[in-house]
Amino acid sequence: MLKTRIIPILLTDGKGNCVKPIKFQRPYRKVGSLMQYIKNMNMRDVDELIVLDIEASREGRLIDAEKIKQYTKELYCPVTLGGGIKNLDDISLLLNSGADKISLNTALLGANINNSYLVEKATRKFGSQAIVAAIDHVDKYSVKFGDTQINGVFNSKEWSAKYYSKQAEKQGAGEILLTDTFCDGAMEGYNIDLINTVTYELNIPVIANGGCGEPAHMHEALCAGAHAIAVGSMFLYKDHTPKQCAQYLAQKGWATRL
Question: Do 39 and 81 touch, CB atoms closer than 8 A?
Fold first, then answer.
């Protein structure tokens, strides 16, 4: 049985700060040094780590590759990086800086997104295992790519998050990072209906993100079809550790890395 991954997700403003919005709203809270949180997570022997620069696309720049080299020197786990990625050269730079996977969101897909085939090009060059498609769900028929909200899929009654996840899979993405923008940072639980809907027809792993406030929420997301769990606020603000969560999930019958 494949191990269930528990993945801390750290957000940065590109200035060395670890930040955390609630429900994707600005202004967001600065919670400390990004480097220090990376070191803390590494000491906790986490399964993987996701680091996203949430201001990079908005400011028209790439997540800082030189700083990334400093970060990845501290890590002994796979790391996914995202922020401001526009083309294959950006992806290559980050992979050469120590990233194991690249998260694409703003430059992702769809007729309303300029670089609609970046996923396909990237998976051909770097392999599906290196590309994560980040889908930010707003409501049943709306998703966000960066600061751009797309309302509805032309001539379709399908949930937008499901549609774009399926498109990413068709283009070769290795997995989906699925975030509910309303649940994110609230620590009141994942959007179970969303996870159920998106995972039902996909053949690639889905990382559930947005809303975890206690280990029971992880169990609920996995029961709904998630293959891995991303956790932000809970690991920043509460005493729960990845190891404690893995032990809890193991007791519930999930295979975890203990």
Answer: no
161 φ/ψ angles, rounded to the nearest 5 degrees: -60, -35
Render 29-54 in DSSP notation, one character per residue: EEEEEHHHHHHHHHHTT-S-EEEEET
145 CB-near residues (< 8 Å, 6+ apart): 105, 106, 108, 110, 113, 136
Q: What is the pLDDT of residues 12-43, one digit of tens each?
A: 999 999 999 999 888 889 999 999 999 999 89
> What is the maximum span of the chain, computed from C-alpha positions, in angstroms?
49
**Whole-angstrom distance, CA of residue 173 vs CA of residue 167:** 9
Tokens 């949430």 — which residue? 54
Whole-model pTM over 0.70: yes
User: CATH class for domain 5-251?
Assistant: alpha beta
Sequence-distant (≥ 6) Cβ neighbours of residue 91 within 8 angstroms? 85, 102, 122, 125, 126, 130
pLDDT computed for residue 111 by the predictor: 41
